[in-house]
Design a protein that fits this description.
This protein is an alpha/beta fold. It has eleven helices and nine strands. Helix 1 packs across helix 4 and helix 3 packs across helix 4. The radius of gyration is 24 Å and the shape is globular.
Length: 327
């Protein structure tokens, strides 16, 4: 069944990709209405996220921002369809990069580069980054979470890798980076680090958009371990389908910064970037579904469970001892 669904979707995707982007934007405008007004796709999540993040805005302003976000989300869908089979020339027009020279200098000097990114529309076009670099001894890559459906996973892998950027599974990140280093190559790898970590992965909290927020620190750990230079990639939409990605240096060597400073810095820069164009960030994520109080309560239940298991084991051994003595 997975295969049947995949081939139907791929056929539709391919046909849509043949249409001019101007035509696809009519489709984007059309699907906005059923997604926003009928399906109400994650409307409650988006509304709550916006209200908590922008308490200074009126309800009218929140609704206006909400609609602009859904329009951008629909554009994201059709723009990603158009990415399928896009030529290098068109990709360079759709996503331009600035600050490339400074990144290239790091690579030329034998240093790898970690790039902090975000779910800012349209992040899929960032995979065209190899087209803007002259360096031949650098590996380009983006970290991703594999999809459950193997057909769609392979499809998106091909889509995101068509310009020479490698897809690296989240679980295999450090191993792949070590392999690249052993081959005498440098890397330029993008980490979309604004996602919510699992309970087990939470080891740092900070304030992000007025809210206590659990964050990933894995990107910083990798950057520190590899002594990488670190950049933030700020996306800007000039007009529909035309983006500029700015490389902004965060540090020359992550290992020289105090622990967690890089993560804190990333979220400060990220919030500034989002505030300048909030409609371009992915507000459908349940970014704040985990709380400090929830973590405390979870740990309390786990500790209680451990005590109960220990007590059961004690009683078992005591009963076993009494049984042996009676025998």
């Amino acid at each position: 069944m997975d295969a049947v669904i995949f081939y139907i979707v791929r056929a539709f995707w391919y046909l849509m990709s043949l249409l001019p982007l101007k035509v696809l934007y009519y489709f984007s405008d059309f699907i906005f209405y059923p997604i926003y007004y009928i399906a109400r796709y994650r409307r409650k999540v988006v509304r709550k996220n916006l209200q908590n993040s922008f308490p200074e805005k009126s309800e009218k302003e929140i609704v206006s921002l909400e609609k602009r976000f859904y329009h951008s989300l629909c554009d994201y869908f059709v723009e990603t369809m158009k990415l399928y089979g896009m030529s290098e020339e068109k990709a360079r027009k759709r996503m331009q990069f600035t600050g490339v020279e400074e990144v290239e200098n790091k690579i030329a000097n034998g240093q790898s580069v970690v790039v902090y990114m975000a779910h800012s529309i349209n992040w899929e076009y960032v995979t065209s980054i190899p087209l803007w670099f002259k360096q031949k001894n650098a590996r380009f890559g983006q970290i991703y979470h594999p999809l459950e459906n193997p057909y769609f996973d392979a499809f998106f892998g091909k889509l995101r890798g068509q310009f020479g950027s490698e897809n690296i599974s989240m679980a295999a990140t450090l191993r792949r980076i070590i392999e690249i280093g052993k081959n005498g190559e440098q890397f330029i790898i993008g980490f979309i680090a604004d996602q919510v970590p699992t309970w087990e992965a939470i080891n740092h909290w900070l304030t992000f958009f007025h809210q206590e927020t659990p964050v990933f620190t894995g990107t910083e750990k990798i950057a520190r371990r590899t002594r990488s230079a670190v950049f933030f990639l700020r996306l800007e939409r000039r007009k529909r389908g035309r983006y500029i990605a700015h490389f902004e240096k965060m540090c020359d060597d992550a290992s020289q910064l105090p622990e967690l400073e890089l993560t804190n810095m990333y979220y400060r820069v990220l919030e500034d970037s989002i505030r300048k164009a909030p409609e371009l960030w992915l507000w459908t994520h349940k970014r704040w579904k985990r709380t400090k109080q929830g973590q405390i309560e979870r740990e309390r239940r786990r500790e209680e469970g451990r005590r109960m298991l220990a007590e059961r084991e004690r009683l078992r051994k005591e009963n076993e001892k009494n049984t042996n003595e009676n025998v």
